[in-house]
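Renewal narrative, Specific Aim 1. Our central claim is that a sequence can be written position by position from structural information alone. The example that follows is taken directly from our test logs and has not been curated for this report. It begins with the structure tokens describing the chain, in the order in which they were read.
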């Protein structure tokens, strides 16, 4: 027969609220930012479409770092149908 007093409760994982875990999260987040900023974005600069855009801006003496989206002229995407 089934005896409810002899059953074990499922293993409860330890709470990960320790200071070490929080430092680990901080280091992981900083590592992700460094990886994106230092490796992914420079690699993305080599993509032909992005490279053409950056070259076009450079040839027009436009500082892309100083642009805001509100200063850009809006253009409909190619092939878009607007009402």
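The sequence written for that structure reads:
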């Amino acid at each position: 027969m089934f005896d409810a007093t002899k059953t074990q409760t499922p293993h409860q994982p330890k709470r990960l609220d320790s200071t070490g875990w929080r430092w680990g999260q901080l280091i992981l987040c900083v590592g992700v930012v460094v990886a994106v900023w230092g490796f992914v974005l420079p690699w993305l600069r080599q993509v032909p479409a992005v490279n053409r855009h950056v070259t076009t801006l450079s040839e027009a003496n436009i500082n892309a770092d100083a642009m805001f989206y509100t200063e850009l002229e809006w253009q409909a995407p190619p092939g878009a149908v607007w009402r």
